[in-house]
Design goal:
The protein is of the alpha/beta class and 305 residues long. The protein folds into 2 domains: 115 residues, no CATH class; 144 residues, Vaccinia Virus protein VP39 (Rossmann fold, 3-Layer(aba) Sandwich), CATH 3.40.50. The chain has 12 helices and 7 strands. The chain has a 7-stranded mixed β-sheet with strand order 3-2-1-4-5-7-6, covered by helices on one side. Helix 4 crosses helix 5, helix 5 packs antiparallel against helix 6 and helix 9 crosses helix 10. The longest helix has 25 residues. It binds S-adenosylmethionine.
């Protein structure tokens, strides 16, 4: 069993120093060099203070608004000099500024293309003249899938088949006296539960999921599949009492791991297992790890409580 997966995601508070490092090149437009020079004079405490504790999507939205205003000012200036900016050019200018701002305040790297192409994509989609109800429907579907991700920062992505198989090897040995209990915290589409319930019918399986559409899909999957030893609940993992389970499985994100660790420490029974897919707990090395040969080269982190 080996480990080897990078588990930390840069937070808002750590990045300005990185930004300063990366911006220190000479081959850049003059305005950018001036702006960077000014930014480097701003104390880190003030840069961090702007966005400390703010959920990244809220920060991203604020930066989009600010970038839009900056692009409007740029457009007005350009037209004052006799240059007219088309809508798409405006959208790209605004996106570029939003991505630049996002980089500077230290939003994780994967936000940059989203910030860059958000407005151009919106303008492009509007050019088709689709009925507004389509946009509403798309919004509602995404809302039902991702629900409170903007707050929890735990989106939906699924454990691989290899992770299911590795989990099977971690389940307690078959016992004539009692069935073991397993819970999937944030059970998504119910894949983990359905697989294990079939592979090891001597266990009792539970899942808790907060997003409505994945919950509904997993509820149907388990109900229609006739899994008698398996159940999913709609709700928050934070209101579940972990003392009821022999194995607790979580595939979340780096954000809730510290809190999950504290909850597990205070609630889980001695000898029970906490297994986290991909995300470690800073400062608490696992007792064991399983490196998975799956698409993401995931690692299972295992703690015996
Ligand atoms: C990365 S997915 C993992 C899905 C599934 N466990 C698997 O391994 O395939 C994380 C899931 O946790 C759910 N989630 C996030 N925060 C939650 C919370 N506080 N309570 C319950 N579910 C939550 C998300 O909606 C998402 O479906």
């Amino acid at each position: 069993m080996t480990s080897g997966v990078a588990t930390s995601m840069p937070g808002l508070s750590t990045a300005p120093a990185t930004v300063a490092r990366h911006c220190g090149t000479t081959a850049k437009p003059k305005f950018l060099a001036v702006f960077t020079a000014w930014w480097n004079t701003v104390p880190d405490s003030r840069k961090n203070g702007l966005f400390t504790g703010m959920p990244p999507p809220v920060a991203a939205l604020l930066l989009q608004g600010t970038a839009c205003l900056a692009a409007l000012a740029g457009g007005a200036l350009a037209s004052w000099f006799g240059y007219a900016i088309g809508v798409m050019h405006f959208a790209f200018l605004s996106g570029l500024i939003a991505a630049l701002f996002s980089r500077m305040v230290g939003l994780p790297g994967w936000w940059l293309p989203i910030q860059m192409f958000f407005l151009p994509a919106l303008v492009w989609a509007l050019s088709f003249g689709l009925p507004p109800s389509w946009f509403l429907a798309a919004f509602l579907i995404l809302l039902a899938i991702y629900w409170s991700t903007f707050r929890t920062q735990v989106p939906l992505y699924l454990s691989s088949h290899k992770a299911w198989q590795a989990l099977e090897t971690l389940l307690p040995a078959v016992s004539a006296e009692k069935n073991f209990t397993f819970v999937d915290l944030g059970s998504g589409m119910g894949g983990v539960l359905a697989y294990l319930a079939k592979a090891r019918p001597d266990g009792r399986y539970q899942g808790v999921e907060s997003a409505p559409l994945p919950f509904l899909a997993s509820w149907l999957r388990i109900g229609l599949g006739g899994y008698r030893n398996c159940q999913v609940k709609w709700g928050s993992l934070w209101s579940l009492d972990l003392s009821h389970y022999d194995v607790v499985y979580a595939y979340l994100s780096p954000v809730p791991m510290e809190r999950l660790w504290l909850k597990a420490k205070s609630e889980m029974r001695p000898g029970s297992l906490l297994v986290s897919n991909t995300f470690a707990v800073p400062g608490h090395p696992p007792h064991d790890t399983i490196a998975l040969d799956d698409l993401h080269r995931s690692t299972l982190y295992i703690w015996r409580m």
